[in-house]
Amino acid sequence: MKILVVIIMNRFLLISFSFTFYFFHNVGCIPLAGIGESRYSHEAKNVKSTYLKFNVKDYKDRRSYEPEYWIYKTNQYNFVLRWFDPDAPFPLAKGDYLYSINPSENYYIHKGDTLYRSRIWQILNGDRREFFIFDCEYWMPVPSGLNKFQFYINDHENERISTVIRELNLPENHSIRMTVLPARLDYSKHPPTVIHLQLGENKNSQEGHKGFAFEFQIEENKPGDVEPKCHIDTGGSQ
Questions:
Q1: What are phi and psi of 18, to 5 degrees?
Q2: Alpha-carbon distance 228 to 139, whole Å?
Q3: Fewer beta carbons within 10 Å, N or C terminal of the chain?
């Protein structure tokens, strides 16, 4: 009888530990500067037909279809948009509270980029969409008005990563057009500064460190304009 009680208690403790780990790993409580944050999607507040629009070009001449893989490999990058919430909960101060506002996987379910993850995978690892393919335009709902954002991009395959923070004023029915270009950065300065874009005659430059340069432009939405689908040629180059 004692052995049975011990077995039941051990299983109870294991289940409790698993649930606690799952909760704090995937759901979390208060995101602290993006560290240990929830990997579940958060709906952007105060959206008034306002979007972040971006199309990161494949600067390495890669193909969506790679024949050496047993299934085709989609070349992709990691992108996370974080928003500084001005209503920081105690004990955080204003400017210290930010979290990702990337949409969920379901937001892009009909995107056609082959990156959609199954519902089971989303339950286990969070439903936030944070991987995107090159040469395809994406839209993300963002808050209108004056807001502060953190933009993070990582091309894991090329070991190229950058983060920038910008404050942008977005009127209703307008969007942020984000352009991302490969660049060499000087990390001895804070924030890191762009030495030059890694294009054209500087394409093979080894000066500084690999990263990205960001450009932002506010533009009015065109009437009737909708987010385009991705077009992937799995039989050859894009």
A1: -60, -45
A2: 9
A3: N
Helix (H, G, I), strand (E, B), or coil: what is residue 55? coil
What pairs with residue 197 in β-bridges?
Answer: 183
Q: What is the pLDDT of residues 52-87, one digit of tens each?
A: 999 999 988 776 555 455 444 668 899 999 999 988
DSSP tag of 31:
-
Phi-psi region of 188 (alpha: psi -120 to 50; beta: other; left: phi over 0): alpha
| Per-residue model confidence as pLDDT tens digits over 99-129 | 999 999 999 999 988 887 777 767 767 788 9
* Residue reference for tokens 């990161």: 56
Q: Are 98 and 34 in contact (CB under 8 A)?
A: yes
d(CA 44, CA 100): 9
Contact at 8 Å (CB) between 39 and 125?
yes
The counts of H helices and E strands in the chain are 2, 10
